[in-house]
Design goal:
By secondary structure, this protein is mainly alpha-helical. The longest helix is centred in the middle third of the chain and has 15 residues. The protein is globular, with a radius of gyration of 12 Å. The chain starts with a helix and ends with a helix. Helices cover about 60% and strands about 0% of the residues. The protein has 4 helices and no strands.
Length: about 80
């Protein structure tokens, strides 16, 4: 699942270069990953996985691992 999330991030902004998949990567850790890209990234994750993050989740999710946890939790609850 993490590789799929990274593919989405790279698709949102092709300038992003991710050499090592780091589950703790978050806004500001990766060059070009700013708040606007983060919002577009979360929207793209929603579209890919056919989900909707709550307003609270959109505000609190800051890292790849948090996105992954949220997706796993949703999958488990289905």
């Amino acid at each position: 699942m993490r590789k799929e999330i990274y593919k989405i991030l790279k698709k949102v902004d092709k300038k992003i270069k991710i050499k090592n998949y780091n589950k703790d990567a978050q806004v500001g850790d990766i060059k070009y990953w700013d708040s606007l890209l983060h919002l577009n990234f979360l929207i793209s994750v929603e579209e890919k996985f056919k989900i909707r993050f709550s307003t609270s989740e959109m505000t609190n999710i800051k890292s790849i691992s948090q996105i992954e946890k949220s997706l796993k939790k949703r999958k488990k609850n289905k």
